[in-house]
Amino acid sequence: MKKLFVIPFLILIVACKSNYKTIDFEVFEITVPEKWNRYERKGIDSYIGGIITDKKDTLKFDLGKYSLDLIENDYPMVYDSLGLSELTKKELKLLPKTNHLIVDSLHGGIDFQKYLQYEYVLDSIDCFKAKVITPRNEGFGASGIYIDSLTGTRENSNKIGISFYGWYLKDRTQAEFIEALKTLRFKKYCSQQNL
């Protein structure tokens, strides 16, 4: 009886795996849905590139000294007239569905912590500790990861980190992206960690 259950289960696993592919960016690999495609860009001081999803979302990475940690730039969604005028058309359209506050003045008894844009959890990706970052408001902002140091240190000015984000993602795409990020394999850098 157990054999009858195991065989269909294995067939299901193999069938599901065939809907994915591994993209090799030379420095790292990532497994993504079959219909997602790689794109490359020329960076000035870092290695940049990314993936275009089947929904035409752009997922960008920056591997270098200046990779962005969104949590360090997590500005509260509290806006005065100047702050509102700096939002993009897309952000203004999405704003009514978010937890935000519009005020006459940014001074006073505002609990800015209540309106932070991002949340994160620490996780292990390959051999590194990573921040998995998601917007507190569905689809408003970026989703992705930040790894502070694949190698080197700030003190020695040879630190190399990575950020990999997608902006304004729908729930399903965000979930697929976060799962794909967990498959990242840093070939060159993990071997250095073991030295």
Describe this structure in words.
There is one protein chain. This protein is α+β, with helices and mostly antiparallel strands. It folds into two domains: 19-72 and 118-193, Protein Transport Mog1p, Chain A (3-Layer(aba) Sandwich), CATH 3.40.1000; 75-113, no CATH class. It has helices at 2-17, 81-85, 89-94, 171-181, 187-193; strands at 20-24, 29-33, 37-40, 46-52, 58-64, 78-79, 101-102, 118-125, 128-135, 142-151, 160-167. It has a seven-stranded antiparallel sheet, covered by helices on one side. Strand 4 and strand 5 form a beta hairpin. The longest helix is centred in the N-terminal third of the chain and has 16 residues, at 2-17. The model is unreliable at 1-6 (pLDDT under 50). This is Lipoprotein.
Parts with pLDDT < 50 across at least 5 consecutive residues: 1-6
What is the number of beta strands?
11
User: Helix content range of the residues, please?
Assistant: 10-25%
Q: SSE string, helix = H, strand = E?
A: HEEEEEEHHEEEEEHH
Q: Separation of termini? A: 49 Å
Radius of gyration: 20 Å
Shape: globular
Strand content: 25-35%
State the CATH class of the largest domain. Answer: Alpha Beta
The CATH topology of the largest domain comes to Protein Transport Mog1p, Chain A
Mean pLDDT across residues: 88
What is the domain tally?
2
Q: Assign the CATH architecture of the largest domain.
A: 3-Layer(aba) Sandwich
Main beta-sheet annotation: 7 strands, antiparallel
